[in-house]
């Protein structure tokens, strides 16, 4: 398909000379730099506290509170083996942050494209009407355009924590590819690029905040400062994440549990509503494989 000159996802592919190893390197560097910055902020002598999401606190602790921020997205939904891995990561991290809010597995998602955010319900409904005629084609795009994610690792910041992947670049496939549809030359970043253009072709102007070389699924968020209110607690948290990541690299990388081909079991999820924290409603779910 033709790629528009204004597509923000094109630059990384162009700058990487469409080289999958270079694209993976950018994803890996973004993840490593994000983790390093977060660790430095957490362990700094000038640490001034976590960044608590008051919307989530209110949703969890104030009966009747309603989140009025409506959004429109295309999500990738994790397959069962990826959800089981996420559950195990949550179990390990809950040992050092027992009061953190954990994303229920049925809400877990990877945002492939954010079309609009923090709009009214009526504004989102208007955008849905524009995209709907092409939504089935877009949500099932992953059936014939399969992008592989590998090397999961836990990342965190002052708001919460997630599991992230990098784009594949020729690693030995851990799952069967009998039908030959998986080709690492088509990366997850190519998928994001294509979905952006497919949406733009409907006449909707995409207003995505998420254009960085990253692929993450939120595992949890902090609801208060209790687990990080001393240097010792913050050091314990950082060490726990380091231990989890060593386990992932040693035991999960290169196995079926450490690989996610986007579109496994379910196609993309065209979803609208109050989507923060995995809410909202599905408009169309694409065909999985």
Describe the structure.
About 40% of the residues lie in helices and about 20% in strands. With about 290 residues, it is an alpha+beta fold. The strands form two sheets. A five-stranded antiparallel beta sheet has the order 2-6-5-4-7, with helices on both faces. A four-stranded antiparallel beta sheet has the order 3-1-8-9. A hairpin with a 3-residue loop joins strand 4 and strand 5 (about 160-165). The radius of gyration is 19 Å and the shape is globular.
List the helices and strands and how they pair.
Layout: H1 10-15, H2 20-43, H3 54-61, E1 70-76, H4 80-94, E2 101-102, E3 110-119, H5 121-139, H6 141-144, E4 148-156, E5 160-167, H7 188-200, E6 216-221, H8 231-252, E7 260-261, E8 269-273, E9 281-285
Distance between the termini: 22 Å
Biggest beta sheet summary: 5 strands, antiparallel
Which percent range describes the beta-strand content?
Answer: 15-25%
Element order: H for helix, E for strand: HHHEHEEHHEEHEHEEE
Structural class: alpha+beta
Overall form: globular
Number of helices: 8
Arithmetic mean of pLDDT: 94
Report the uncertain regions: none
Q: How many strands appear in the DSSP assignment?
A: 9
Strand order within the widest beta sheet: 2-6-5-4-7
What is Rg?
A: 19 Å
């Amino acid at each position: 398909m033709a790629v528009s000159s204004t597509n923000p996802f094109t630059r990384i592919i162009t700058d990487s000379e469409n080289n999958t190893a270079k694209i993976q390197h950018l994803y890996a560097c973004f993840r490593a730099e994000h983790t390093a910055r977060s660790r430095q902020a957490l362990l700094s002598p000038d640490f001034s506290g976590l960044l608590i999401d008051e919307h989530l606190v209110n949703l969890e602790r104030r009966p009747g509170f309603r989140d009025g921020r409506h959004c429109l997205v295309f999500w990738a939904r994790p397959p069962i083996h990826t959800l089981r891995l996420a559950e195990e990561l949550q179990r390990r991290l809950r040992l050092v942050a027992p009061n953190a809010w954990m994303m229920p597995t049925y809400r877990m998602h990877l945002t492939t494209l954010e079309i609009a955010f923090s709009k009214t319900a009526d504004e989102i409904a208007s955008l849905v009407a524009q995209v709907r005629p092409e939504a089935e084609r877009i949500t099932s795009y992953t059936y014939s355009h399969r992008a592989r994610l590998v090397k999961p690792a836990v990342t965190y910041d002052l708001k919460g924590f997630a599991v992230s992947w990098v784009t594949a670049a020729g690693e030995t496939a851990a799952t069967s590819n009998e039908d030959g549809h998986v080709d690492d030359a088509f990366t997850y970043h190519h998928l994001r690029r294509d979905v952006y253009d497919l949406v733009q072709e409907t006449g909707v102007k995409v207003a995505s905040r998420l254009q960085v070389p990253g692929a993450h699924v939120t595992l949890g968020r902090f609801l208060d400062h209790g687990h990080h209110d001393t240097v010792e607690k913050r050091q314990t948290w950082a060490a726990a994440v380091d231990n989890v990541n060593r386990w992932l690299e040693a035991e999960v990388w290169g196995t079926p549990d450490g690989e996610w081909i986007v579109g496994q079991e379910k196609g993309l999820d065209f979803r609208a509503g109050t989507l923060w924290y995995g809410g909202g409603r599905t408009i169309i779910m694409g065909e999985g494989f």
